Amino acid sequence: MVIFNSQSYQLVKFLSDDQGKRGFTFEAVCEESNHRVCCKFYPEGKLHEKWKEEFQKPNRIQSDDIAKYIGDITATIQGLLFVVILFEWVDGFSLKKYITDHPEKITIDFILTFATWILSPLQAFTSRNTYHGDLHLGNVMISVAGEDSLEPGKTSFKLIDFGISFSDPEMQPRDDFKSTARIIAQLLLKVSPESLDLSDKFIFDRLSSGYLKLLNEEEPDRADSFKNPRKLWAAIRSIEEEAKNMKAGNTGKNDRLANPFDLLSADRFRDDSPLLYQLFFAPRSLQSHILSSDTVVLTGPRGCGKTMILRNLSLKTHLNSTDGETLPDHIGFYLSSFELWMAFPHRREDDTHSADEIATDAFQLRAIHYFHLCLIEEILSTLFALRLKRPELITIGQITAFANHISSEFRDYTSSPSADLLSDLKSTVESWRATFRKEPSSYVPKEGVAFLRDLCRALRSIFPFVKDRQIFFLIDDYSLGKVTPALQLSLNRIIFQRNSEFQFKVGAEKSAILLRDVDGPLDPSRTYHEHDMGYFFIDPDAAEERLETLKTIFDKRLQYTDGVKYTSLESILGTTQYESFTQFARVLTKPYNGTESDPLYLKKPLYHGLGFISEICSGDIAAILSLIQRIFIQSKFDALTDQSIPIDIQSQDHAIKDYSRDFLEHVGGEQLSSQKVRQVAKAFGEMAKWKLENQTSSNEGTPKPFQVCRLEVYEDEEMSVSASELFRLLLRYGIFIQVPRGFSQDGGTSLRLFLRRLFLPTFGLSFSRRDCIRIHMDEFSQLLNEPEVTSRQIIDRWVSESSSSAIGPTLFDNDTR
Question: For the segment 130-145, what is each residue's pLDDT rounded down to a tens digit?
Fold first, then answer.
């Protein structure tokens, strides 16, 4: 019995199904009022010192979707002291218990109902600048209205355990939006896609491949729905509306943009949208590299076009966007790593155990088998699409032979007598994957690591159109963070095997792939070719190609926008007025001493024009498109109406600087150490600004403003462990772009790092790549670990050196020592 406010509460039921790891939960009933409450018992010392304040927070949030805190007392049981917390009682079951007891009730409608409902408490949290921190299936209560209610069968949800993650010192609060994505993914796992009608299958696919990515988004610049429940609600409504149109027979393809900035992210395009193909452009030199007969890893800043490139290499995109009469020289099968995340999401175990400990033999077998299932399903889906366009290329005999190969080498398969064989095989593999995803122990895989090689040999021998073509498996977003270390450790032996039958083309963030597999280290120079999109665009010799790429991509968007009045980005933004980077640098650093009649751009530094926009690009095409959108918005420019062009250069300057600052403040999102690495960028920016304003450079013969955007680090000792991790994040988040190593005068090597050029307007820097700051490895490690202190020390030393020199600073090699 528990006494609270002079009332006696009898513990009537131990809630064994709803236990947390650190407390005990009971249903209790007040003897005086028959009022039911939930009692949670926590042993003394298990709660944070400010736990009461945290548990009271839901009472200050105006939402009926959150179970409220009632009060607390202390109690001694068998000599042990407990804190007893009373919460509002919620009828029903936990969502965890409900989906276990009633898996047949987890339908697409049920999932949509939950996905829509959860946005209400998320909005309440967002508006009060707080969060739950421990969302999971066990903390969502569900009740179903009975036959006597006004709406029989109506499903209601409620969140419980608000404040636990804040109050328990041993718990690390988890991101609510990512946790929501995981719950929805767990619900989707209970659905068998092969049993869905066309409309529900469409919703299933859009939730799996698109909406969950919005919830998992880590950087605000990638989507306006970033941690924005109202925008996420609109995304769900859009999915439902499209499904209704499909049900009504209105299945016309969306082949026009609503505005030039519609669909900025390549993973938002439907598979059958011709825009995926029509808006695509990649420089010829880049395409030839990717289409080589080697395993290629595409890296670079987020939004640099990796997904657009990989999706356009797939045969399905080619078939959905053309008449299919001419096939490409390769056969590409596209797979988003999000499909892998669905089956192998990040778990607390991944934080507490090493990848080697998790990647047991059994785990590897499950991971590789599921990977094979995903690839086979995509192969069959592609064959199905090809048969629709080119039926003469695929015969029943060929499908029979391929089905026999699957049955003998992978899983036993028996076709339905009256069914179309390809459709039946495709739906069977979909069923295998759905079942294995839910119950991985339900099947013991029999194939080995050479299965994919043999599968490709079978494709070549069975289908004549494959025989002389390269086979590419296109794996998108294969990055740590999306794919767990244990999963990479298991799959790397498949993806990076050297094989003449197929090649993998992999998209990943920089430094986000383990350089080993379960057999040992991988040698990148022999295993795969990395193509860094950031380096490709930052290369000073690529100025014309960079400008042409940006113009072509945006002009295509104008071409495919309904009602647009303009056909050229250059006509809208105009040309950059400065004759050179040096002229711009002088305007940045020197007081104006010209005449009143001089143009405005000579009186004050103004970032403007297509030339400067292309120079800002470090391969981050999506960010540059968003930057142009900011220019349009802030200058009130509407491409659908007749307006004066080019846009005013002062308006362009304000928008460019605002966007640059905003992007720097949010790059890396709320990920591990993102704030720390942003401070490194700011520290370098301050150092570069001091150089620009206080030094001249004579490395081209004539003294000019010292224009720094590059850092060179002498590799004269090992980088510290703590600095190495921060350095990896600097590259992964695209804060610095690494280019091939240089050589110092003593014959050693040096790291060469360009500050992401989108950040240059934040610090008022020029775009010249000529000058650099050189530091030694120990000081670089200090800069990473203590950016503000170290940059201040370096600048103070420069000031001291400048004041002690009769002729002023003349550091040719720009060394900090």
Answer: 888 888 898 899 988 8
